[in-house]
Specification:
Largest sheet: 8 strands, mixed
Distance between the termini: 29 Å
Number of helices: 4
Shape: globular
Order of helices and strands: HEHHEEHEEEEE
Number of domains: 1
Radius of gyration: 17 Å
Structural class: alpha+beta
Number of strands: 8
C-alpha cells in the first residue's frame, strides 16, 4: 500500500477540480441554476476522469491556458502543475475503493462566464505512516470560475474555500503527529 504523505498534495489539488468532454453553453445569456448545476456537474466528472488518466491532453482540454489554482499552502499553481500532480497520482495507482463525489452548491452562467461553488468528497483506504490501514477522507470546497471558449466550458480559476482532512473519521492537518507517527492518538489520554 502507498503511504499518505505522497497523496495529500495531489488530493488537495484534485479535491477542488475535475472535467473533459465538450459541452456547449445554451444560447440564453443567463442559465437557470438547475441547468447550470447539471452542466458543471458533468464538467467536474469529466475533469475527474481526465485527472485519473494522468495524461496531459485530456486535462488541458478542460483547463484554460491561464488556469490557476491555490494549493493548501496558499501558493498559486498553474495548469502544468495540475498535470504534474495528476501524473504522480496515476503512477501511485488508483485505489479500487476510492470514492469521489462532487456536489454543486451554486452555479451561475452569465454569457461566456460562470461561477460555481462546489464540494468534492473523496474517501479511500490507505496505509498510514504507522504501517496500519486507515480510512482517509478529504472534503474540499472551492469557488471556481469557468469560461466558454470555442463552445466549450473550461476551468480558468479555482479558489479554495475550505478543506477538511480526516483519518479514521478524525480531522487532522498534514504533518500533524498522530498515533503511530511519533505521538499518541488523539483522545488516548497520553
Amino acid at each position: 500500500m502507498k503511504r499518505l504523505p505522497a497523496l495529500i498534495l495531489p488530493l488537495a489539488a484534485l479535491g477542488a477540480t475535475l472535467p473533459g468532454a465538450a459541452l456547449a453553453q445554451p444560447e440564453a445569456p443567463s442559465v437557470p441554476a438547475p441547468d447550470a448545476k447539471a452542466i458543471f456537474a458533468q464538467r467536474y466528472a469529466d475533469l475527474r476522469k481526465a485527472m485519473a488518466s494522468g495524461e496531459a491532453d485530456p486535462i488541458l482540454a478542460i483547463l484554460t491556458p491561464d488556469f490557476t489554482f491555490t494549493d493548501r499552502r496558499g501558493q498559486t499553481r498553474t495548469a502544468d502543475d495540475m498535470v504534474s500532480m495528476a501524473a504522480r497520482m496515476a503512477m501511485m495507482g488508483d485505489p479500487s475503493d476510492r470514492k469521489t463525489t462532487t456536489s454543486i452548491a451554486s452555479a451561475t452562467i452569465d454569457g461566456a462566464a460562470a461561477d460555481v461553488e462546489q464540494t468534492t468528497d473523496t474517501t479511500m483506504t490507505r496505509e498510514g505512516r504507522d504501517g496500519q490501514t486507515h480510512q482517509f477522507e478529504m472534503i474540499s470546497t472551492s469557488l471556481d470560475h469557468w469560461v466558454q471558449q470555442d463552445g466549450v466550458w473550461r476551468l480558468q480559476k479555482e479558489t479554495p474555500k475550505a478543506m477538511t482532512l480526516k483519518r479514521d473519521g478524525v480531522e487532522f492537518q498534514p504533518g500533524e503527529r498522530r498515533g503511530g507517527h511519533g505521538g499518541p492518538p488523539p483522545g488516548s489520554g497520553n
